[in-house]
Every structure is written in C-alpha cells, then in structure tokens.
Q: What sequence folds into this?
C-alpha cells in the first residue's frame, strides 16, 4: 500500500526580458536583450534538470513563470521550460501552473502553447484603464490591448485569470481608480491584485517626482483608493486573502499562498530565489552574471529568523498565522516565540487573536511595517 504523499514544493522560473523598461520598474528585467533569449532558455533548462536531480525530483504542486515578461518568449521556448519542469519534478496532475503575461505581447500561438504544455492560470499586467496613466507608467499597452489579451487567453482555454492593477499613481484620482476597477470587473477575472505604486530610487518616475514634473496623490487619497478596492471587490464576490490580493472563492493563488506560508520552493533563472531545506539561495540578479554561470548566494536560516519569517510572511494573509501551524513548524507557540513583543501591537489595535490565529487588524494592514519592527 502507498504511504501518504510527501509535502509538495513550489517551482518558479524568472524570465527577465521586457519590450521596454517601465518608468517605475527596478525589477531584474531587461529591454533590448531578446537576442539572449535562446541562450537564457538553454541555461534555465540546464539548471532545472540539474536541480531536479540534486534534490531527488521532489513533488511539486505549483509552477509560476514570472518576470519580466514571460510572454516575450516564443512558443518553443516556453514549451521547453515547462516540459523541463514536468520532467525534472514530480508535478501533481492538478498542479496550479501560472504564467505572467503583458498586454501587447500575448499572442494566440503563445497562449495555446502554454495551455498545451499544461499551464492553467494566466496573470495579466493590465494596471490601469486610463491611457494617460499607462503612458506615464511607461507601459507599452493600452486597456484595449488588455481586453484583447484576455480574449486570446480565454480562446486558448484559460478560465483562471488574474488582473494586476495599480493605484496611488501620479495624478490618479479616486474616480480614475474606480474606472479601472469597474473596467477590470467587466472582464470577469477570477483574481485581482491591487498594488500601490512603490517609488523606487533611480527610476525615471522617481526623478520626475523629485523634479516636480509628477505628483503623487496624498496619503489620504492613496488610502481611499485601497479602501475602494477592498469595498468594490468584496461587493463583487471577491475575498481579500492577502494585503494586495483578492480572489473569487477557490481561486486564491496557490503558489503565492505557499510562499507566504513558507512552503519550500525552487527558483530558476536570473534573480530567482529558492527556499529549500532551511536555506535560502539567490541566483545572480544580473542577466550576464547568470549566463556566465555565477553561483547562487546561499544563506542558512537560523531558527529565530525562521520564526520571524513565518510572521512576516503569514501576517500578510488575512487569515493570519495559525498558532497550531506555527507550533508544528517551529516547536514553539507564537506566544512562546515572541513573548512580550506581542503586547504592544495588540494593545495598539494592530494585531488581534481570532479563531486560534494571530492576524493584522484593518489598521494593522496599513501599518504592517511597524508591527514587524515590534516583533523583530
Ligand atoms: S513589464 Fe514589469 S518587469 Fe517589465 S519593465 Fe515593466 S514593470 Fe518591469
């Protein structure tokens, strides 16, 4: 008789190529390096096969192709990557297999190749309905192209589709964001991610803001937009399951939930991280360093750091961190691990115990960083 299945891990592949660099982007992505794509795919496939053997072909139940813009790969390249993953790991038949795509790059051929290779979830970087805002972000597409991409995805057989939206953009009003939410809901996605703009140093948008050419909405407007997303999405049947993520029942992104609950994962490609055997490994973030075969940097996670990570990641989720799960993972209850450090954020109404779990309150979600500082 067969024993219980081993716990599954997640698999991630980073595809660092983009058509052009968005004005706010400081991710490990490159424009104008398409000529390196064949070499990159060869290197990723080699890495997948090698790591599969080194780790004993573990069971996996999620795959995520992220970027960058994975939909810039050609059909043969994306098929090779997915086939390499399916060959090197024991991937569950009902695994969640996601690919990030950007409007303006998704072709019908690519979407069909993805489906044929087993992908069943697509994440589309739609971002905003107003062309003015998309231009200011340096996005290469307009909303019409997001609609076309969604149709292409549906025709290829994808029915589990996430739309990424952004708020807190320079000159964006609450009414603009309402328009984006309404336009997104009209497309009937199963999942919506709403991220506030993070202005990173050394990006064109940060320089324009510093020079006074662009102005961010004030804090209150920013918060109003976030509240608008929470309310509008809840009214339309979406459950908020993480600070920035909303899903129809049963459609939470399993891969990301795994990351937030410290399920081990292996990452492939430049800038990809892995978390496996209480060790984190970071592949070189520079494309050239990865192509040159530079080794990943590894870090052993101490028991104390592992406990903090469980809180840092788990508190992002609305269900919080279950004491029972924490105790099973770390051999200590949350109270035993954090002691008096819990008292201040609980007294301030930022953290609360509910149904055996420690969670951020509504206010705590806004002030998550201060809670983490208290727990450090
Ligand atoms: S598409 Fe995404 S990864 Fe590429 S430049 Fe824009 S924000 Fe960065």
A:
């Amino acid at each position: 008789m067969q024993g219980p299945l081993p716990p599954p891990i997640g698999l991630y592949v980073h595809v660092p190529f983009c058509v052009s660099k968005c004005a706010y982007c400081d991710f490990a992505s490159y424009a104008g390096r398409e000529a390196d794509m064949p070499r990159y795919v060869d290197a990723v496939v080699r890495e997948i096969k090698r790591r599969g053997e080194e780790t004993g072909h573990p069971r996996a139940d999620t795959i995520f192709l992220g970027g960058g813009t994975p939909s810039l790969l050609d059909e043969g390249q994306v098929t090779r990557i997915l086939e390499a993953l399916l060959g090197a790991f024991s991937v569950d038949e009902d695994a969640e297999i996601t690919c990030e795509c950007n409007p303006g790059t998704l072709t019908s051929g690519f979407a069909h190749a993805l489906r044929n290779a087993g992908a069943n979830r697509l994440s589309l970087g739609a971002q905003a309905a107003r062309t003015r805002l998309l231009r200011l972000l340096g996005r290469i597409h307009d909303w019409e192209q997001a609609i076309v991409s969604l149709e292409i995805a549906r025709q290829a057989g994808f029915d589990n589709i996430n739309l990424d939206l952004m708020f807190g953009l320079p000159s964006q009003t609450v009414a603009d964001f309402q328009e984006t939410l309404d336009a997104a809901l009209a497309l009937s996605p199963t999942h919506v991610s709403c991220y506030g703009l993070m202005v990173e140093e050394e990006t064109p948008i940060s320089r324009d803001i510093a020079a006074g050419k662009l102005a961010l909405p004030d804090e209150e407007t920013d918060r109003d937009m976030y509240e608008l997303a929470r309310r509008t999405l809840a009214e339309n049947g979406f459950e908020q399951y993480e600070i920035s993520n909303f899903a129809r029942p049963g459609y939470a992104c399993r891969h990301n939930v795994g990351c937030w609950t410290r399920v081990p994962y292996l990452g492939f490609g430049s800038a990809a991280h892995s978390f496996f055997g209480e060790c984190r490994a970071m592949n070189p973030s520079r494309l050239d360093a990865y192509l040159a075969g530079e080794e990943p940097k590894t870090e052993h996670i101490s028991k104390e750091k592992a406990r903090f990570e469980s809180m840092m990641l788990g508190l992002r989720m609305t269900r919080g961190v279950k004491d029972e799960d924490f105790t099973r993972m770390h051999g200590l209850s949350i109270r035993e691990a954090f002691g008096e450090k819990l008292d201040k954020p609980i007294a301030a109404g930022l953290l609360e115990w509910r149904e055996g779990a420690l969670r951020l309150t509504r206010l705590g979600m806004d002030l998550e960083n201060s809670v983490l500082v208290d727990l450090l």
